[in-house]
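Appendix B. One record, verbatim.
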Amino acid sequence: MAFCNSCGAPLEPAARFCPKCGKGAPVSAAPSTPASAAAVKPAQASSAVKIVLIVVAVIIGLGILGMVTSAFFAWRIAKHTHISSRGDKVRVETPFGTVESTQNSDEAARNIGVDVYSGARALKSSAGAVTFGGMKTAGAEFETSDPPEKVAEFYKQKFPGAMVSTQGDDQYSIVSNEKNRVVTINIESQDGKTRINIANVTGKPSDQSQ
């Protein structure tokens, strides 16, 4: 409670003058309020961290998009792929081309389009043909008991303009590049026999065909 400075009479808290002597009431100092501490700003993520998070999010997004795209194309390819078989022949038709394989060695020898060395035996499950973009590749593997140099001489006569390379005395590579046709013949000794691998590529890319 406040008191008058002149007469000592008690004063009401809201009184501006002393009710007894009429003097002005003393002004009481308002209790000081301690200054509030400055608000601490929350820590902010650095720009480097933000960039890293953005990059990670982009990588994850691209990965998911890539998986979805791959699955879509795989589904499209599977949907348009047809497999048929007849006897020893299997035919696979895809949006990119056709693949044929046969286990009939005699048929492989007939379809390869290159003369087979006399007496050579076609190996089973080693013949096939691939058609892609207007080009067809037929290949087969044969075996004979004659030495490699004798087989190589036979094909040198069949393809006199071919490029011939050798490795040692038992490996030969013969490549004949003709118009719209490339024939590759690899001859090598294996397990006491002579293996003959023949590949015949015919046709030309579809974008160049008329």
